Amino acid sequence: MQDNYRKVTESASYGPWFEGKYILRLWRRWFFSVFCVALTIGILTYVATDMFLPNRYTASALVSVVPKTNNSNNINSRNMESAMTRSANMWNSNVLMRELKGPNNERNITGTFRAYKVSSSILRIEGSASTAQEAYYLLNAAINSYKPLAPNFDSDYNSVVLTRVTQDSLEVTHRRPVVFAALAFGITFVIIYLILLIWSMFTQILHNEVQARQLLSVPLYEAVPMIRKRRRKKAVLICHPGTPYSFQERIEHLTSRVVQHMHRYDQKIIMITSVTAGEGKSTISSNLALALARRGKKVLFLDLDLRKPSAARNFERTEGDTEELMSIVQREAPLAAHAESLREEPLLYAIWQFHAVKDSDQRIEESRLTELLEEAKAQFDYIVLDTPPMAPVRDTKVIARSADCTVMVLRQDLAHAAAANAAIEHLEECGAPCAGAVLNQCYGLARTERRKRGKYGYYYGYYRQEAKT
């Protein structure tokens, strides 16, 4: 079925990897977890650095390269430059290091040694080790080892040590665990977010209306905005004062699509389900039943989510004199005789389920639910069934035999297109084909509606006047 109810102006070449708002929502949602992981890595890096990365001690001395004679050739700047280069190469040579750490030395000297030019005739030699004593012995051993080797490399110049080497003059390079921990924290944070970015570019999770229209195998009936609840446990219903007009308008659009479909195929029983839990199908089914009753239709609402019933809580009903749905079905009593007319909408009748039912799929399968619904069709214009999600349990597959069609509720940023299409295909096999889908709890739609009210304020004002009358 081609969905032409509302035109979509976005390009048809749209891909999920271009949705920057979804990426921002994803990053915001995972921020705390990513922060905790990065903080843990940073703390472990700090501990490891503090325990296993020692301070570095450096003993240094200045060495002057001077000619042995006052010959003009030796004093020449070019020859002095060459002599400085030869001396530095000698200090940094492997020959000196073998002599330095060879068997002739009494101590097993560890550490690193280097020499570099400071000025035109001055070299700086440094010995670095993990302890001050090792650095001191390393530098002194290098000076002592250099003296017998120097004449073999340069017979015209001498290397004279200008400064006295003492353990008190050593330089200490302190370990910086905080710096390493901060680097580990930042690198981990960036890597995890890059992984999330790449993952978000190729996933088929439904994150906006346009993408849902492209990826779903059924028409997208409506996108319902995310509404922030003033009270956490209170459901958002169109009969409650203060419910945003953007939400009410979207529910009315959804109801129109459902009525058109059911009128076209002469159907009365519609089942509302979802793929997984937490997608808001009970809220959508409750509001759909209310919207149908507002249009002057006699509606029967059944809470068939027997594993986790919540419709009674949505309407703020508590257990009392009303008999539960499952006991009525098991007694094979007429549904119309036990339905409660709601004070919110007198044309809306409901039968609640207050307690979870164990092995509910088997009990429904063994009951005469199909026959009871057929009897109720003669007394009601529409029957709305709130059913469990399809993925965790098989209740919906059993109930589908008694329904005429289905509306699939999919939550933005949670529902996966492949899983939704597989569930839709399975509903077709069960005999309750999916008429359309609802993308629920969409971010940003409320702001879009507010912008529309600013542009078409006259029409919205007229709608509010009608609502009051």
* Beta-strand content estimate: 15-25%
Identify the strand order in the major beta sheet: 6-13-12-7-11-8-10-9
Work out the radius of gyration: 40 Å
* Average pLDDT taken over every residue: 83
Give the % helix.
Answer: 40-55%
Low-confidence parts? 1-17, 455-469
| Overall geometry | rod-shaped
Number of domains: 3
Q: Can you say what the CATH homologous superfamily of the largest domain is?
A: P-loop containing nucleotide triphosphate hydrolases
CATH structural class of the largest domain: Alpha Beta
- Sheet bearing the most strands, described? 8 strands, mixed
Alpha-carbon distance between the two ends: 37 Å
Q: How many distinct helices?
A: 18
- The fold-level CATH name of the largest domain is Rossmann fold
Helix vs. strand class: alpha/beta
Query: Using DSSP, what is the number of strands?
Result: 13
CATH architecture of the largest domain: 3-Layer(aba) Sandwich
Can you give me a brief rundown of this structure?
This protein is about 45% helix and about 15% strand.
Q: Tags for this entry?
A:
Alpha-Beta Plaits, 17% strand, 47% helix, 18 helices, Rossmann fold, five-stranded antiparallel beta sheet, rod-shaped, alpha/beta, 3 domains, disordered C terminus, disordered N terminus, 469 residues, eight-stranded mixed beta sheet
